[in-house]
Amino acid sequence: MTKIVRTELDSYYYHYPAGATIVTSHANGRDNAMAVAWHTAISREAPIYLVSISPKRFTHGLIVESGEFAVNFMPMESGSLVAQIAGCSGADIDKFSELDIQGQPGNQVKASVLTDAQAAYECKVVGQHTYGDHDVFFGEIVAVQWEPSAFSAEGPLDLDAVQPILYLGEDYYASSKGSVEFKRGQPAQTS
Ligand SMILES: Cc1cc2nc3c(=O)[nH]c(=O)nc-3n(C[C@H](O)[C@H](O)[C@H](O)COP(=O)(O)O)c2cc1C
Domain 18-175 belongs to what architecture? Predict the structure, then answer.
């Protein structure tokens, strides 16, 4: 493959796909939801999950105020809702009522766990750091909620039961069609 090389990033889509999550927050009597593609697990013991959020987002202030957030892992069926949530700000509207977002306060945090999420991490902020134009919030996972029918007996997500929504950049999304097992340290089986 002959690759194009640039030393300055033109678009920022080369690392996608990434799961499109909905990060929920609650402070000062306000609930909010935003789409987040910049997120990842960074520690198992203690379990720490990070989200990278621009200070421009209404969510940012609610997380700073409350010290809490929830990360909702959404199925493909919720794609239209994810895009609607991403297309407006809680600074302008109450997204929960205007977009009819269904959820309940978490078990350990006040931020909502969404009804349609196949799983959610409830997080308490244990660190915050500015990198470039975004702030990274490090959240200790204080509760996890999941839909049992979405996960296989072995543990991982059952892609026959639920297809997580993947983000490709701009307004493009993808779904995953199936899973495959590659055993660690073993060459692929050939028939
Ligand atoms: C799929 C998708 C993923 C996004 N990921 C992020 C992200 O990781 N961090 C961020 O600050 N904004 C991200 N955005 C932009 C916010 O979701 C968007 O600005 C949102 O309306 C902010 O809502 P709020 O002002 O109510 O918090 C993303 C947008 C889309 C469409």
Answer: Roll (2.30)
